[in-house]
Amino acid sequence: MTLQDSVISLLKRSPADQYALYRRVGGTSMSEITRTITELQQKKIIHVASYRKSQRTGLDIPVYSLSANRRTKLDVHSLLAGVTSERLIEYDFLARNLVSPLKRANILDVGTAGSALIQAIREFGSRWQAFGIDLAQDCDAEMDARSAGFRDGIFDQVISISTIEHIGLSYNISDENGDTTAMSEIFRLLKKHGSAIITVPYGKAGKPEHRVYDRKNLGRLIRCFSLVKKEFYHYSAGKWKKCSQATADSANSQVPLHFHSNACACLLLKKQ
To answer: Is the pTM of this model over 0.85?
Structure first.
């Protein structure tokens, strides 16, 4: 985490002056804190919210806060108007686990056709280069996720929302190992210590047009990666609710047609 990221993280919790930031960050100098504050002000990421009186000198000391017009997390609400499917929790998980908008990053969206997500990512992360691929034509490049045409280690983050379960089973392709091949390809494309955000349907298999993962198959799918975070959600009584993996294990596919399953696994993975 950079010093700028640390300062922003602290100011998300509460406003603070430079002395409080210096104490809380630790391991740096006051001059570095001052320089970082100046840089963040120039970028309009933080601003002076108020002043406090120094008990020692009697001078006014500025107290900093995140600027109201600075979004620190991708706003996915506009993408979810009228949506009731697993996208509700998948996009929220995505927004919480994207790389920092302050970082220069190359991001790949696998399975982007027909989605407004890639454009929202571009508009949010001004320092990001975002690229979308799919076998459909409505994307940046028509590519097969099992053998994408990029060099090794080019992306800082790869995202794939409810796509992996279809790979090898659509577009007149019959490849039962298409999902694991695609995950190996994602691993190849990531830089060292790069991350992947993957969501897949979970529970008991039901619909023949896509895979539904259980514990064994999910472990097989992500075996190349280190698991950073996993969250499971279950659709019950008309709502998506966070649940344990044990609860998700028993989920079935008796859900509305536009759902993949009535449970979903959301994963943050890392390439070591």
So the answer is: no
